[in-house]
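Sugar ABC transporter substrate-binding protein: structure, please.
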Amino acid sequence: MKPVLKSALKTVGAGAVACVALNASAATVTIATLNNPDMIELKKLSPAFEQANPDIKLNWVILEENVLRQRATTDITTGSGQFDVMTIGEYETPQWGKRGWLTPLTNLPADYDLNDVVKTARDGLSSGGQLYALPFYVESSMTYYRKDLFAAKGLKMPDQPTYDQIAQFADKLTDKANGIYGICLRGKAGWGENMAYGTTVVNTFGGRWFDEKWNAQLTSPEWKKAMTFYVDLLKKDGPPGASSNGFNENLTLMSSGKCAMWIDATVAAGMLYNKQQSQIADKVGFAAAPIAVTPKGSHWLWAWALAIPKSSKQPDAAKKFIAWATSKQYIELVAKDEGWASVPPGTRQSTYARPEYKQAAPFGDFVLKAIETADPEHPTLKPVPYTGIQFVGIPEFQSFGTVVGQSISGAIAGQMTIDQALAAGNATADRAVKQAGYQK
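Here you go.
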């Protein structure tokens, strides 16, 4: 063997050993996230982070929304340290941060530019002035509709529709023979699924979860009117199996042309306007979330954010990852891969200032305004002792909100009446706050 070749082989061998040694000492960051398109895109682009940080390996646990919430809650409350990064929201973050379960996010890299992050998002992910999660995307809710179907029937969607108008449109646009449904709405049970949307309907119909003394209000005329409207609308003009449809299922129905209207998260706009993901990209229009007797609480505020549990075994590596995943640079990566319309919305002022985003996302300014005008401090017509628009900001809500969601889902499926569902829900909510000591 020639000396040069021998020497080259030696070098390759040494490099391979060094590489194995590096991988053996690499910090593994386990990320719990949900199966929404934006998170799937994050996983797809994450090798760029691993290449830039060869000492960090990412391990992904991607779950359906309700399952993610259960797993994250179990992990954080038991301190088991299963996850280094959790995808949580505006409901969990302030509560868990206050309890000392999350790592405070201080000393972020200078180029992170925290002041560029939309203030509403930062405030919603803080407790006592301390930030506990970084927003991956922020959303409100809005109305999507098929411009071509509206034009064919001579209908015009107002900038601010009422629920009465929505019901009239749905009746005229339902064409079951051709597989087109007048309206798609969340029916899948869950405090963050059907009850997130349902609570905005209750709010704008003048209702509230609790009065000022923490007495549950689910048997009130406002709740009955709101839930009767919602259930009847889905039964009459919604798709079959609506009681099983959450955000992802309705996104699939809308983007494949099956829904004439859909009221849901503003984050879906980027997907519906993306020609690679949507068959109706050139036919979709948008308007504000509908209102009934009051505009209060008609559109929600939510952030899917990345947080580091106190029990994380790799907090430094986890922090490096979440700073990257919520950075300006990451937004540029998505723009290159999917186009500007599909970048994570609602997080950074600089995104909304970009001419490329303005051109690709005609909904951009509207969405930012919806996010900035949503008011979790005053979500209802009558005063309430809680904060949160589409949720009640107390730890017990996760449990009783889901139980109520199951009853409402049962009403959509025809398994019980609205009165039965609301009576059962009222008893569950009352019992939960009584046991927790809210009622004096």
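Notes: The CA atoms of residues 165 and 357 lie 31 Å apart.
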